Each structure stands twice: as C-alpha cells, then as structure tokens.
Amino acid sequence: xxxxxxxxxxxxxxxxxxxxxxxxxxxxxxxxxxxxxxxxxxxxxxxxxxxxxxxxxxxxxxxxxxxxxxxxxxxxxxxxxxxxxxxxxxxxxxxxxxxxxxxxxxxxxxxxxxxxxxxxxxxxxxxxxxxxxxxxxxxxxxxxxxxxxxxxxxxxxxxxxxxxxxxxxxxxxxxxxxxxxxxxxxxxxxxxxxxxxxxxxxxxxxxxxxxxxxxxxxxxxxxxxxxxxxxxxxxxxxxxxxxxxxxxxxxxxxxxxxxxxxxxxxxxxxxxxxxxxxxxxxxxxxxxxxxxxxxxxxxxxxxxxxxxxxxxxxxxxxxxxxxxxxxxxxxxxxxxxxxxxxxxxxxxxxxxxxxxxxxxxxxxxxxxxxxxxxxxxxxxxxxxxxxxxxxxxxxxxxxxxxxxxxxxxxxxxxxxxxxxxxxxxxxxxxxxxxxxxxxxxxxxxxxxxxxxxxxxxxxx
Length: 460
Fold this sequence. Notes:
six-stranded mixed β-sheet, nine-stranded mixed β-sheet, about 450 residues, alpha/beta, Protein-Tyrosine Phosphatase, Chain A, Rossmann fold, 15 helices
C-alpha cells in the first residue's frame, strides 16, 4: 500500500467506495489523513464501514474543510451532468483528483509509465509490465487494469509503475506527469461522459500533459485522431515523440510490416526485431500495434532490445482479451469479453477462420453498421442481451444469426453449430458492455470460461 503522508492530519473526502475508492480511503486512513468517505449505495457504505473507513455524508458536510476530493472514476465529473458531490466540491474550490494522482505525487523517484487508448490499453499495459519484470526490473502494474494505484507497492528510483489510464482517470489528473506516455488509438467511446467526440479526444490527449525533453510520448498512427495529436506534439519539439503502427512502415518509428516488428528509431535505418507471428498470445493486427507500443515504451525506460525480445516471446497473454480458454471436440473457445465496443470486436473477427460469434449485451454509442465489412470469417452469430435485436439488423443479409438471449444458451448453440460445421472457433467478442446481464466484463468472461468447462465435462 502507498503511503500518502503528504495529506496526514488533513481532511480528505473520498466519494465512491468501489475498488479504487475503498483502496484510496484505506490508504489515506493508514497515512494519518482525516478521511471523509461516502457512497450513494447503503450496502457499499456498510462494507466500507466494516473495513474501518470513516463515513461522512458528503452531500451535507462543511466543504470549507477538505483539502481534496478523491473521486472514483466511475462517478461523473462534468458530463452528462456532475455528480452532486463533485458539484459541491467544485463550488467550494476543492481540488478533485483520483488515486493515480496521489500515487504520482508520493512516488516521485520511480518511473511512471501511462497507457491509454480506446482499445488495447490493458494488453499493452500488461505487456510492458511483463517486459520489465521478465528482465528483472522492479515493476508494479495496475491503475484501470486490476490493482488500484494505492494498493501497489512503494518503489524507489530503480522501479517503474506501469498504469492503464482510462479517460475517466485522465479527467482526474492535475499534476501527474508520465515519464513514458502511450496513446494507442482513439475511436468513439464513453462520449456521454465527455460531452462528445471533441471532449473525449481532448481528455485522452492529456496523458501527454506536462511532459518535457526528459519524457517520452509514444503514439499509434493508425487513426486520424492520433495522427493529429502526433503532428501537434512533433511541431512543438519539446519532447521525444515516437510514432508506432501495427500495419504500415513509419520512418523513424516502431512498426510491424508483414508480421515483423521493426525499430527505425536509430540511425542506420529500420532494424528487424522479431517475427510476431510466432507469438500466439499476441494475435492479429491490433496486437501488432500493442507490441510495437510496448517495445517502444520498454526501450524508452532503458531496457535492452535483447531483453525486450525475450519478454515478448514469454508473454502469457491477458485474461478476457482473445484468451484461448480451451479446445473441445476440435473447437477452439476464445474469451474476448473485454471487447466492449464495435472496434474491439472487429479486431478479433479478423484474427480467426470459421467463427461462431457470440455478441451482445448493453449497447454503446455508434450502432453496429461498421461490423458489416468484417464478417468474412463468421459462419453464424449468436446474439445475447439488450442489443441483440440491433446487432441482428446490422447482420441481416450478411451472416445467419440466432437470438440466443443468454450467454449459456449461446455457448450451447454455438458448440452444436461448430460441431455440425466440422470445427472452428467459438468467439465471445460482445461489442457491448456487460451490465445488462453481468456485473462487469470479467464476470462475463468467467461465465463463458465455466460454460466451456462444462462442455468438456459433458464430453467426458
């Protein structure tokens, strides 16, 4: 746990007592701060109180006293409208931050690596952390990925924090500066929380805020929004900017061409580094971009190329991101539950042949028409959740589909169809959020994994 002694004996408000909020409240309490914690849900408040967290109703407290409000990222800061507690803090001039900001303010000697992007940030974060750890470096991995920032271990100069940073968390950073900042890609997502696409792009761009010649910016150039940000940063000339791509040659950058990862950042031209097609835990063009960004980030921290290559070869992959769960009766079952939007699902649909696709859940912005051009490998779709009918309309005339309703039904139906089709891949890549039927994408992926395990038991 991170020691936040800079706030010792001072009143600090914490709103939202889920995973990161509870972690922040406990870390602040352990560090001697006067914690004022609150959550809208009575059950959540009760669990926090049982863990020893002091509760104060932040909708009715004296806002002249707190020195800061630690706001959980899931709570609206400004759009579609501010949460009442955020509004009260703003009116009182109280600084609103998140746990990553507190980590950055206290662990000033360690290297801070931040990864953001609409898609791929979890895999890239885990991969950078793996590359550093496999090379024997001190590293802690967390943020939006798994472990809350203040639950990480304290590190000195030799250590690195590799953090996945969501747009919600970026909204709550004020002084944090990333030594290595990675922007993978930008496509429409969470637009209601940022007031539209322009607000979303502006928030994502803040991962580079405060950087100087001592820091490194790494930007994927495979979409127009990131290309514009790259052009802006290179025009400033105030930091090292490394472009990356998963599918095209980038002079002076790190890129993948025909499956080979190249480093063209040094004098002497492009240098072939590794054949990514041999790394089964990084399938597809999107993972080519993830690997290029991770390579560039690891190298920017000072890691030797030989160590990076060894680390790429030993990467075990990440749960719920194109995770090969099992092969049953010659059928591969792939858990890509983290694909919560159309762009993420499309990336998986081009990676496999003879796909029996399970999709659906709670719809996000943008609709599903963009899927139509990427269905060449899909043999049949099995649709679940609230968005099933909307996806079915987008698939009409392209591939057969079945309204399965639930994930358990979809797995059983896809299994039978794949058996009748003499094999293939049953792919859970929902293109939707999970919240209509599951607590989160992890529980949806775990349910899929259990359903596949049940198929094996029936087979035996």
